[in-house]
């Protein structure tokens, strides 16, 4: 009997298959929906990351602080619907909900990591690129059934400084018309009515305005010349010229540098009398082909008439108040259509007027500022293994100021903070009667806790700083008693109140009444009825700010003998300035984190100072207190002729920074002990009345005109050379450097000397090593000097050598530096400015 297989139907057999297919179909649909959503989110993240990197670089170019750049990046992402939280330097960033994780870094020109944006304190020197990385997860909808609740998104962008291409117009302005502050006054008296200050809501402080005239060679101050971007002669015809000025210009279509050789299709260096950039003995010009940069050469566009469509297009820029970026050029090399101009830089201008005909055509321009770079998306690239160097040089002139015995208006700026109630060793007593407390400590030591500040005053009243100072001023035979009959005085006291707000008391005004002045001194800062008890903090910047306002708005009345008063300001303090101009205390946790914001940070000058040139404001508080105090003092000295500013430093206060507050470093007088305060005040009085007093310029300068050029007989400097910078390697071996000054090399065997010359925009003092003879990255040191004549009428006519380097609060004879890639793309490093002073003990008065 054979077996038979019987086929039967069972209901529901297809249900598992259908269910499985439904899962697969839902998964496929979910995958399509979620992947599509993820793709859209990824595209938006890429777009937002690019925008954030550009925004951060724009903030960096505009001088924003490290914290400001961090905020700008985050806000830019948020404006593009990407909410993000920053990773910390340990990689422990935490995103909430749909937030993305942000990583942002400063990189140098070779893409080496410098530091995390927002954690650097200051934007690091050498920062060339910003790298922004954004990553996170996107929640899914249907893909969850496949155990994929999220999908990743990630984007990365590099932003760099690039030459602008939009809003750049072919109008060359002569470099000798400008310095770093703007237009220089015209030499032609007839043009003085057109040299003025321009103001608008964007620039309430004012900008310089000047009329410039057409000159195809642009070879003298006050000239401009039309340029063309293309080498072809047709690049300067009427149609092409109009196109270059229309709208935002057409520089993006290309720029040709140098003289074009049609046979070899190359561009060559136009100036046979100067050296083109070279690497390993080969010319490498142009370094960045078809991109306009400082050092490039642009073609003259001769015979252009300011009329017709050209005039119409330029007038539109005036009407629209467009910011016009124009090349700053040196005098032409060559003539006619073959003339070329070397570009010293790019700068932004407003054009507010035009007129004239033919050779008398002119533009009225307003100088806004440099415009050498804009933010762009750019991946880091290395251009050279050797590095050229460039650096600016500054000096502070110093001279002996003759005095003719004129009456003196003394402005006393007296510190009445709580520490003035301690003794000269920085000691107080707990609550004024208890245990001795070392309220101030020095050299980084940790002080005792004095929780009541001035309330922990020194119990022996006659040993308190405020007692000793007030007696030296107002006691019998003191400073006030020794004033001459024609002298006058005003007293300003400063501290903070119980709410920690700045308190500056300007007293009753100028007076020659000794009794009234003594009463004012005794009342200054007193707590209750006790003239020898004080309280509060040390808002030095606010005190100097108020003193400067008073000298300008409320000068002393005319002296009895009809002579003009000479102003002598005496700033008296026992503490490091540690309160911002806005009244906030600077705990300095960002630059002195090791102190945790305690009293050591408050009393350490470097924690309260932004050393040049890396100064960046402490957002939102502005300059740090010592920097602000120096700035206020400089403004006061600049605004008031022959003002003398003395500093009396009481107790053990660190005097670093006070040398820049005083009119001259020699006018800072420490009084470490109570016994010398009266003697020091008598010495200040004698200096103020004497026949000669040392004086130092209020500001750092970087240009020496003919009148202030030092005597060549004293320094044996070639014409056009103002001093030398000497370079050494890490072993202090002198380097063998090329001669970069004018004329023949006069150095003999001293080949490590770089000449300090004046060149470029504003004819600033500086030095350079060309890329062709560049140096390998590494550690180096430099010394140097500038010769300067303190010419009359401000100076004494003496030529002196300025050779003390001041990189921050102290001076050094030699300064180390590390040679690293440039702050801009390329192979030339811009070093920190070299600031030179006269030796502090140099004799300037006979």
TrEMBL record:
Ranges where the VWFA domain occurs: 407-681
Top-level taxon of the source organism: Bacteria
Region: Disordered, residue numbers: 533-559
UniProt signal peptide: none
Pfam family, one: Tad
Name used for this protein in its record: VWFA domain-containing protein
